[in-house]
Amino acid sequence: MSKANLLFHLDSFSWEELSIDRSKELDDLAQALTCISDSEDQIFGHPFCYLQQLSWGAVYQIISFDDEKKNEVCPWLRHDHQKTLTKLFNRAISPQQSDTLDRLKQEFKNENNGWIGIQAIEQPEYVFSKVSWVIFHQSFVSKNYTTISKDTEYFKMFYIPQLRIAPNKINQLIDKKQVPDIIDRLDTPTHVDDYKTLHGEQIQIHFKDDKKSALYLNGTWKHHGFDLSNEVKRFLIDLGFIIP
After folding, report:
1. Mean pLDDT of all residues in 194-223
2. Does 134 share its domain with 178?
3. pTM for this entry
4. Is residue 23 within 8 Å of residue 80, measured between CB atoms?
5. Domain end position, chosen among 158, 183, 198
6. Does 244 fall in a domain?
7. Looking at the predicted structure, is the pLDDT value of residue 195 above 80?
8. Which of 9, 156, 166, 188 gives a 20 to 30 Å CA spacing to 74?
9. Domain span at residue 40?
10. 122-140 pLDDT per residue, tens
């Protein structure tokens, strides 16, 4: 199974005005394609990518414009831009010939599905740059926490640790002894502004083991450490902790 299934967003390449400089958008897209080639993401071509016509001709023809044609209608277009476009236009279509994201989601149920194109319109699940590719995967793992047990390495690469239950509610559960006996308390850091915490502290949970171990939300030990029981692991996962 691929990490993600991305459908070529044909409309974002249907450029009636070829004189508009789209260099930055294509440079950003090239970075995204590099990330995708280094991962297990799958790009599917659009079933109609060689059929869509504009006033000046078929959309795909831009990938074969020679220097004379480029200088005439889109002097900003470089050879590397055409290579980027070729990588998308030459993709095989999906087995069920999906041409919309909804159909792609039906074809690959419960998987990470989205568009790939250039930044043209605001819409969810859309990859157009390296940053948007990272956000696309971060969004998926944050909504599908069970991915941690299916592909831990992939999960840890993109998951931004965050509590799934409010800290005060967690400590209430601890006070009422509705948690595994070895759990002592949850500590949250003091924020000095929106992005920094006092002394760089992180959310951490403390245990009653002989070493008084403490675990950060990101799955690293603050100090000491021990083998967690399955019961404790399940509890921590429910809270949003990464298991070491």
Report:
1. 80
2. no
3. 0.77
4. no
5. 158
6. no
7. no
8. 9
9. 5-158
10. 667 999 999 999 999 998 9
